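Format notes (please read before filing issues)

Several people have asked whether sequences and structure tokens are stored in separate files. They are not. Every record keeps both together, in the order shown below: the sequence lines, then the token lines. Line labels are part of the format and must not be stripped during preprocessing.
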Amino acid sequence: MDSPNDALRTTLESLLRRGASHDELRAALVAFKERGGLQQDAVEILYALRAWAPDEATEDLVLDTLDFATGWCRAEIRVWGTEG
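Then the structure lines:
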């Protein structure tokens, strides 16, 4: 069975390959958090996916998703708040 971190990476990579929407990518992070996933783990996975990104459009989606994880976005769409 995959660890939550492996599952997040697999899910995000699949979503990115098909050009998923921001909402779908954010929802994957929210589900990860709800299963006890840690912000730092999500950030590390997203940095690895940035290195993997096959093109600029995919990299942009990764960076936008990273913003949801790190809080560099509007408060209402942040996945992790001040609780980390």
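For reference, the curators noted about this record: The mean pLDDT is 93. The radius of gyration is 12 Å.
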